[in-house]
Structure formats: structure tokens, C-alpha cells
Automatic annotation (TrEMBL):
Domain NADH-rubredoxin oxidoreductase C-terminal stretches: 315-369
Cofactor requirement: [4Fe-4S] cluster; FAD; siroheme
Name by which UniProt lists this protein: FAD/NAD(P)-binding oxidoreductase
InterPro entries with a match to the protein in the record: BFD-like_2Fe2S-bd_dom (IPR007419), BFD-like_2Fe2S-bd_dom_sf (IPR041854), FAD/NAD-bd_sf (IPR036188), FAD/NAD-binding_dom (IPR023753), FAD/NAD-linked_Rdtase_dimer_sf (IPR016156), NasD-like (IPR052034), Rubredoxin_C (IPR041575)
Keyword Iron-sulfur annotated: yes
Keywords assigned: FAD, Flavoprotein, Heme, Iron, Iron-sulfur, Metal-binding, Oxidoreductase
Molecular-function annotations in GO: iron-sulfur cluster binding; metal ion binding; oxidoreductase activity
Residue span, FAD/NAD(P)-binding domain: 4-283
Chain ranges of the BFD-like [2Fe-2S]-binding domain: 418-463
Biological or metabolic pathway of the protein: Nitrogen metabolism; nitrate reduction (assimilation)
Family affiliation: Belongs to the nitrite and sulfite reductase 4Fe-4S domain family.
Amino acid sequence: MSERIVIVGYGMAGSRLAAELQARAGDRKVTVLGAEPHHAYNRIMLSTLLAGKIDEPDVELAEVVGHGVDVRTAVAVTAIDRAAGEVCTDDGDRIGYDHLVLATGSRAIVPPLPGLDPLPERVVPFRTLDDCRRILAAARGARSALVLGGGLLGLEAARGLAARGLDVTVVHPIGHLMERQLDPAAGAVLVDTLAGLGVRTRLGVTATGVAADADGVRLDLADGDSLAADLLVLSCGVRPDTALAAAAGLTVERGIVVDDRMRTSDRRISAIGDCAQHDGTLTGLVAPAWAQARVVAQVLAGDDPLVRYRPRPMVTRLKAAGIDLAAMGDATDGGPAEELTFTDPARGTYARLRIRDERLTGAILLGDNPAVGTVVQLFDRGAPVPVDRRSLLLGRAFGAVSATPAASPALMPDAATVCQCNDVNKGALVSCWRSGARTADELSAATRAGTGCGGCRDAVAGIADWLAGAEPVEATR
Ligand SMILES: Cc1cc2nc3c(=O)[nH]c(=O)nc-3n(C[C@H](O)[C@H](O)[C@H](O)COP(=O)(O)OP(=O)(O)OC[C@H]3O[C@@H](n4cnc5c(N)ncnc54)[C@H](O)[C@@H]3O)c2cc1C
């Protein structure tokens, strides 16, 4: 009998695992159960959809799901019967498994404020395609919006709504924006950049309550002030969806605890993506979710008995038109390190580099800095920084040091990561070119580069142009 693999969650991790399994030979029956009524979509691109830069069909994930994979949408798993090796669904079915994979993601946190239970019509969290539809419906004909939460997603939502012509105010309880990625100085520059784009900020003040009716929303603040608007977007963080695992008696801390092979405390059950906690850490990003999906596929297909999930350093980028922001590593940590900063508030520019043992351990680059590609590569590969660091800090050449030595495709080493989300390096793109892929789209289809957050699409296009114009030179490693 073929092995029965059941995947709970048809989001970014679950759909990738299904595609990875489908691409591998073997006799197995894969069933994917997704609570949302949609085909798997690129959740990351909801910010871009909200900003009106793409349409709904553009967010659908291109994962091939066909022969050997049974996808059921709008079906939620309500319980796991570990003794019987079955999951129970909300449509009354019981589905047997030999191996179960939990890819249940996270849920938006709705703060316990008076006025939010039940959620009023004009108050919407920002996590799912349906949330995005509701925000867009409420924004139609609206003149103003409030966003509660000045983290990455809150700012993306705020920028998107401002781009649609709404008067937007972000309310954030901490004294500076994006405090997980930025230091106060960078946060201050970002406030000015946002103001120039029509987004106001209220920092260091907590919300105390919400009142909403057919005419609008009022957000009450702890300093006694109240803000009124046509809609309120909640962006107060996410919480891993661990309820099923906990009810089934699996070990759950902040997330579902997994080992290096993504196995939970029950060897017949794995967990991947936002719901999984590996080595004490939750990820909340797509690159680790997809890397974990590949590990589970390799384990289940028996490809590589030694395969292990190894976390990689992550780079956070804000996807908001008019704001260039990349943050990575321990940029806000005060531990011992060589520290370089440059601030030019008038031009919306801030840069901070932290260097230890000649390697970047963290960086914040806000505003136009041509060295951003180089900084990301040096950080990603743990490569030594140039002797003259000013080129990285300011993005300009000093003396013989090029500002962007690795930004030119010809000079990029083969090992340089081009697509962080899918972990695709330049060498992989060059070898696909040599195998016949001739355009950026073909390179993307062959390697998946550019199919995550989309931030590397220009780089993939640049590499395709360079390959088209020159016989690839032997790159350095
Ligand atoms: C607006 C936005 C922008 C983002 N931008 C970025 C970015 O730029 N870069 C980045 O790396 N990450 C970004 N993220 C985070 C990224 O989307 C997540 O890390 C990624 O989606 C995690 O994938 P997942 O499959 O674990 O979870 P999800 O994509 O959330 O999928 C989980 C799925 O499981 C389903 N499910 C849950 N419980 C059950 C059940 N009992 N039965 C059946 N189905 C169930 C859910 O309905 C959901 O469809 C962003 C997120 C949002 C919301």
C-alpha cells in the first residue's frame, strides 16, 4: 500500500511541501487540507495587493499540484487522533495517515481591547486574502484609516492605504517604529520618510479601546486622546497556530517543538513553517518555511538520510513603495562590535553596520544606498568586509574600493545568494542558463528565484541580461 501523507494547512509551507513531494518519485498518496477557501496564495504579496500594485490573480502560488496530490480547500482539521492515525475534519470526515505534517501557520493577534469582541465591520486584522478583501472593501469610499501596530506589516499596510489616497495614522505602543529590526535613530528617520509619503505616526502610546459604528471607528488612547477614521487595521503581531498540536498532546511551547528533521514529539508527525519552533526559535518568514518543507520532503522521500534543517541568517526588507529598508542580524544589539553609523535625516538616509572579526553581524540600511546588495551578500555569506568600510556605509566608492563590488552580475561570486526566499545563488542561475533557460522568467521558473517576496526580480533580470550579453566568465567562489 502506498504511504499516506496528510498535510494540514494549504498555505505557503503546506503547498510547497506538496509540490516538493510531487516532484519526487515514490509511491505515496498526499492529501492537503486547507481551512481557507482559496487555492494556495502568496501571503507575502498581500501587502503589494493592498497597495494596488498587483491584482488578486497575481497572488496565486504557481505550485504544481496535480497527480498524486488530493487538495481539499475550505476544510479545517478539528482534531488529530494519534492512536488511530487519523485526522478529523469539520465536514465530518476522518482521514488516515502514515505521516502527518502540520503547516498551520500563524494567526493575527487581536488585542484584548474593549470594543473588539466581536470584531466590528470596520476593524480588520491583516493576515489572509479575505482580510485583504475586507480592508479593500472598507477603504473604497473611505478618506482615512488607522493602523494599530508599527511593525513591518503595519507599515506596509499603512503605506498601501496611503498610496490609495487615504489619510493614514499609525499608532504604535513603543517609542520607535519596527523596534525588532530598527534602533531609535533609524526609527526616527523612518517617521520622517513616512510623513513625506502621507503616513502620520503616534508613537509610545497604547490603545485603550475601540468604538465603531456604521459611520466610522474611534480609537481611544492611554494619553486621553481619541483618533477617528473610516477604518482600523490591526497589525499587532501573530501567534503560531498550535491548538491542534496542543490538543493532541504534542510538545508545544511558543510553537510546535520540532527537531532538526522537523519531527514533533511524535515521530509520525512533523511541523513546518510559522507554527513550528526549531531550536527555541519561531521564524515567521517564508524562507525558513520553504527550507523546512524541503527537508520534510527529503526525509519522507528517503532522498538523504542525513538531511537536517539548518537556519540561515535572515534579512528583513520593507515592501513599501518609496521606502528602501533592509535590516539584518543583531543590528540593534548593544554587545561588543565595531560600530559604524551614518545619518542624513534630510535625505531620509540612515545606515548602521556592526562588525565583529571583520564580518558583518548586523546592519540597518534605510534610504537609497547602492551598497545594499553588497551588504546583504557579505552578511549572508559571512564574508570579510572591505578594509575601507565607508563604501558599505555610504554606498559610494572611496579610492580603489568599489561601492558595490558584488552588485554587478559579472563580479558576483557563484555562491552569492540572489533569492533569499528560495535560497537560489548565482551559480544555480548560471547553470540553468547553460541548460537552456534564456529569460528572467525562464530562470525564475527553473529555480523559483523571485517567486517569494519578489525583491530579487531585478537581480534575476540583471543576471539574465548579463548572461545574454556575455559568455559567462568563470566566477570566483
Ligand atoms: C501581509 C504579509 C506580508 C508578509 N511579508 C513577508 C515578507 O516580506 N517576507 C517573508 O519572509 N514573510 C512575510 N510574511 C510572512 C509569511 O507570509 C509567512 O511566514 C508564511 O506565510 C508562513 O507560511 P505557513 O504555511 O507556515 O503559514 P500560512 O501561510 O499562514 O498558512 C497556514 C495555512 O494553514 C491553514 N490552517 C490553519 N489551521 C488549519 C486547520 N486546522 N485545518 C486546515 N487548515 C488550517 C490556514 O488557514 C492557512 O491557510 C508576510 C505575511 C503577511 C500576512
